[in-house]
Amino acid sequence: MAGDFLEKLRQTLLDMHHTGRLSYIEPGLYEDARAYIEKLKDDYYGLENPLESRAGSLVIEEIGSITDTVQEIFSLRTRQILDLAFQQIEGQYFDKEEARKMLPAERAMYAQVIDAIEGCREALVHGEEYPFGGAGAAAVDSIDEPVETAAGPEPAAAAPRPITSPYALVYIRSDMESFMGVDGRVYALKQGDIVTLPENNADVLCERDIALNIRLNK
Question: Which of 116, 139, 167, 185 has the fewest CB atoms lying closer than 10 Å?
Fold first, then answer.
């Protein structure tokens, strides 16, 4: 199943490259990717010895592949949206059908980009102060009205998750396989690295004589 999901993401990216224009993507693509990564993380932590097992390495590779593909989809779409914003600013032909394919968060970014460019042009070219926060929102409104799903309006963006684990500064004494920390980050470390790690992970590595805890005075 993991391979099927990754293949679906890669096909989406391939289609985007093929068209060369902003294209439709499933509204839940990013959310589905995040949920799938969380499932893979649960699978990783469910292994008996994830740091030392081949299965753990495969899960890390899968998470990395999905994360990289989603990031590339985001980067490509962002560049395409910036192109649309410049077309709007310069009064060039503007394809509203293409613009309608933006996700709600992408529309918000589009509006902010237009506001920033307009403000900068007014300040630098015309020497006037510009009240940021108007033209971009109007441009988005001109595309079409916001669409509510059957479940209701688009939910507000979730706040960043707080870091629940304290960190420790450690010196890596020997090369090691990549692993996932309790903070959900993937660490690829080698001998000689000095890095901050979640204390739980740092304690395990120090117990195995792989790392040395560098205790600093606070």
Answer: 185
